[in-house]
Amino acid sequence: MLALEKQYNFYLENESELLGKYENKYLVIAEDLSIYPFDNKKDAYYYGANRFGLGHFLLQHCNYDDAHTVHTVNFRVIA
Fold first, then answer.
1. What pTM value is reported for the model?
2. How many other CB atoms are there within 10 angstroms of residue 10's CB atom?
3. Is 7 strand, coil or helix?
4. I need a labelling partner for 63 at 20 to 30 A (CA). Which of 15, 27, 28, 32 fits?
């Protein structure tokens, strides 16, 4: 199973508990399934990118309206 799939499945399996604890927060879910809550998407994204590297964390908005919404972001790097 891919890491992001594992992290997303973890979110879905624990959705009720997470919504109760982190409603309206942006969650960074690491590969070891550690959770880091943030008040906004920008802070969550930069934290995840700097601490874990792109592709190694899931960024999930913990909200009843967005509970099953998935956004895929692809980056093109030119060196």
1. 0.81
2. 16
3. helix
4. 32
What does the alpha-carbon distance between residue 11 and residue 57 come to, in Å, rounded to a whole number?
12
CB 38 within 8 A of CB 44: yes
pLDDT higher than threshold 80 for residue 58: yes
Sign of the alpha-carbon dihedral angle for 5, 7, 50, 24: positive
Q: How far apart are CA 52 and CA 17, in angstroms?
A: 24
User: What integer pLDDT is reported at residue 64 of this predicted model?
Assistant: 85
Q: Residue 8: exposed, middle, or buried by beta-carbon count in 10 A (0-12, 13-18, 19+)? A: middle
Q: What are phi and psi of 61, to 5 degrees?
A: -80, 120
